Amino acid sequence: MVAANPAALKAGIRPGQRLADARALQPGLEVCERDMAGDRARLQKLAGWATRYTPWTRAEDVSALADEGVGLLMDISGCAHLFGGETALLEDLLIRLNRLGHDARAGVADTVGAAWAVARNTTHAHGQAQGQRISIVKPGAAREAVASLPTTALRISQGMADDLTRLGLVTIGDLLARPRAPLVARFGAVLGARLDAIVGARAEPVAPEAQRVPARARLLFADPLIALGDIVGAITLAAGDLAQELDQRQQGARQLRLTLYRVDAEVFTFEAGTSTPVRDAARLAALFSEKLVPTGGVSGSDIDIGYGIEGVVLEARAVDALGPKQRDLTAGPSDGSSLDELIDRLSNRLGTHRVTRIKPQASHMPERAQLAVPALAAEGFQKNDVPLFAHGDAPLRPIRMLSPPEPVEVIAQVPEGPPRQFRWRRMLHAVVRSEGPERLAAEWWLAEDAVAATRDYFRVEDEEGRRFWLYRDGLYDRETNAPRWFVHGVFG
Amino acid sequence: MNRDGKTQVLESLRRDLSRFESGRVRAPVVSLGAVDIDRRLSGGRGLSLAGLHEVVGTGYPDMAAAAGFAVALGSLLQGHQGGALLWVVQRCAAHDLGGLYGPGLAMLGIDPKRLVVVSARDDREALWVTEEALRTPDLAGVVAELEGGRAYDLKASRRLQLAAEKFERPALLLAGHAGKAASAPSAALTRFRISSAPSAPNSCVAAACGLTRFGVSLDRVRGGAPSHLILEWNHATGRFAVATSVSRRAGVNTGGPRPEPAAQAARAGRYEAAALAS
After folding, report:
1. Looking at beta carbons, which residues of chain B come within 8 Å of A391?
2. What ipTM was estimated for this complex?
């Protein structure tokens, strides 16, 4: 047994019991398997949700401390007064958790260890309130507060606690009063570390889930938003706030994340990137509102608004310097910013890998001479850029390239000569004009080309005027006796 | 009503009329390079920049030629406007003919550095991207491949035509081949039906291919009559010309590898140098 609900507890079922014993006590007991992954996911969600109180929030490891229940660690230093004090914050927290269907207890103390201990042992703690669900240890009182608690409150294993009990060490106070060296020698460094942590002799910071972000805007609503239009409106408001913050710092956002908090602690996140730094509120908002709202037959992201969205957080996760810009009075086609904007929108809507630019590569092998790079990452074009590829009198390369090349059956007059006719996709083409070979040797310095053969490329035209790029794989008589033919591309 | 008033009314009526028949009088155009072609197009002065143009293949095997013709038109647009070109690709064409190949596009006249490739999942998405792109001032035009689904109907084509008119930015639709798409009604200004044509005679080597030629049927031209031409695309000058003679069958292959003309080898070297420099 890992956990039991109040009714089962009343019937005598205890966590740690064997299932058979529990069944013997209460034959009607309803049992279900523990879903570790589900617990973990839910706790992570709650940790995200709890950032409404403080950004320094972390979920405990679910598997480690099963018997005592798992929880969230929150560093509320400097945050409590925003909610009217520590007690008010905890009450608010417990009421909300209760509404979400969680039975929770809370403790506040100077150290993580002490808070952990009193939250789980409220009946023993000082300063109880709220039906013994909240216990707050006054500053500097951690040592006294935990002295009377059992050793299990030290975050040590049950086995170690049992051993300690056998030695007559029942409470934490007993341990603190002992000389440290023999204890550590007998039970290991863990015990010493835990004792130091609980009295504050050893620092134990709460590492937050959330990274520090350069800029963020947050909106919380008293009444949850149910209509998609309202949510988009809220995003626009948040984008305005964020733009203002970025404006003061002369920065523009490159990467953004939108987080929507649903009332039942479900969290939706959306990411967006931009090709150039952006701090125009309308453009920032458009990046996300397009993802949410379906337009023009392209469906938006599916989010289940459920009982409503109660919070919107828009963060700029990466920023670049962006100086103030004067608006052009004569609005007209311009500096390429409209293309950047289009690329941003399409990339965010369709995915960055589907909006690409062609980048030439330093390779003479045709299939390696170009690379599709996401347009977001590629540098923008300048209007007066010289064409990168040279122009010629007759196209030497096909406008479309088959990947991989497709095998064709070829009849050639002589094995090392140009093709006379070939059959591709069951269609016979009689070659009336051809040019070649253009001999391209494999790039032997690359591992995948170590055994590749030399290719002889031919540009051929059939009697209908269709032009193809064929190659013979391998030099006849030197590399192979039966060279194979491939079609690698088509000319216009 | 005095005489001045009358002329004013007439003027405004003429303006209205020309607006109704947009593409015929005032819309900006790009010349294809020869008067003989330009006068056959809608408006009589060249390819309208404020319009939707369909490019279809005569049959399935002519799809490569249709793509080549779209590349040539795209090159004209890039050259005329100096902006970037957006090419919407779909899986179907990539499967049939292969993906767009930068070096080859460059040799036929499109600057790959000013090309943005968007891959769409289906026709609906391709049409949506096209319409969005038409609003972008820095684009010279949009080329979109369609798979021939039902998404592209009269209503969709009218939508694109209106957007193209409003923003004076052309859209070329590579709308499959005639068997599938050509019969469908559409609001496009022009429908080019392309068939492959034997290339021009090569000035150096008789057996080699020459300048690219297309068999171009103007199936529909708003305000014009259907016609058929063989057009020759000179990618060095970026102009079309009406082919003077329908190409004779060039000399039959005599076999045996031919030496590469030195000029072509040098060009290939230049491309590699550009790639290395980038």
Report:
1. 106-107, 109, 235-236
2. 0.80
